[in-house]
Amino acid sequence: MRLTIGRGIGLAALPVLCVAVFSTPVRAQEYGIAAKRPVIAGACKTCPWGALAEIVKAAMAPYGYDVQICYNCATSEGPREVAGALKPGDIQRAYTSFPFIPRDQMPPPPNAPVDFGVTSVQNLWYAYSGTHAYARNKEGPRKNLRLLAAIQAPNYLIVATKSSLGIHDLSQVKQKKWPVRILTDANEVSTAVMAYYGLSRETVESAGGKILRGVVPADRADFDVIIHGGSLGNAPEFNVWYEVSQKFDLDYLALPRDLLAKIAKDDDMEFHDIPIGLLRGVNQTIPTVARTGHVVFGRADMPDDFAYAVAKAMDEHQDLLQWTHLNYSYNIRTVWKAFGVPLHPAAAKYYRERGYMK
After folding, report:
1. pLDDT tens track for 232-289
2. Domain 39-153+292-354, architecture per CATH
3. Nearest Cα to 49, choosing from 280, 241, 291, 270?
4. Which superfamily does 155-291 belong to?
5. 118 in Cβ contact with 44 (< 8 Å)
6. Does an H or E element contain 222, and which?
7. 144 within 8 A of 317, measured Cβ to Cβ
8. 3 state DSSP class of 219
């Protein structure tokens, strides 16, 4: 009996076939869109941008792309790296800057230029327009950035105090005779809230108090006031609320309308209510401001077929958004909007074909 494999291939032909296969060169470390191994700027695996980058990776796989994730292209760095087609920053510096993130959540990045990225809607807009963090560093606008898809994810400004203190308005903080310990996320929004009440690092520390960081677990053990963005989700940026709302009885404060209006204008936020039950102790809706979500973005020189594929993949695999630890959603009315950042023409073509935009 003659063993055959396939059509007309005998056992005697196998050695020749094997030689042909193993003599083919393998370039496992080739990266880039053309190689079907594009590098995406994200953040740590449990961070909002890292979690969304994982979704992009899974969504792009059926289209033949093996997306490689940079888990330390975080903060304002991602848009810089995408705009300049730069390689990811030094991983050791990232470990030093974010010691509270386990190293297995931030593995070393690919040694290759970044092709596209995930960041917040505001961060992309600021990088494109050269404002906020990019203006402070005297950087120019990065007009080559392009939107591919905007994904919704609520991020509320939340202010709370320990119930045992009896503080129902932040104006009471300066009146207290004891040093106050304030947990913040140290961004422009929490700084604006403190400034409204005459609080700053200098005034708090001169009175014997401390400004603490909500992302540092050790700082959460002893605090009086929290001024911090977030939601109920176990991401490093948000899990201060995940933890302290369970460990401590908190009073959640409503901020004055004029303060919220100023923050909304200055920091491109929207008026929304913190919903009842978002955190333990939130027993009524609380007016506040919130951020609008995150974006998948690239450059103007990105190949049309790839930009189209990203838009298509995120739409056709919306189901992936529900299988993560954060609250993501897809809205056909907003997926193509990110303030004044232009939409990549190929992504626009896809959304027009679907009837999402005219």
Report:
1. 999 999 999 999 999 999 999 999 999 999 999 999 999 999 999 999 999 999 999 9
2. 3-Layer(aba) Sandwich (3.40)
3. 291
4. Periplasmic binding protein-like II (3.40.190.10)
5. no
6. none
7. no
8. helix
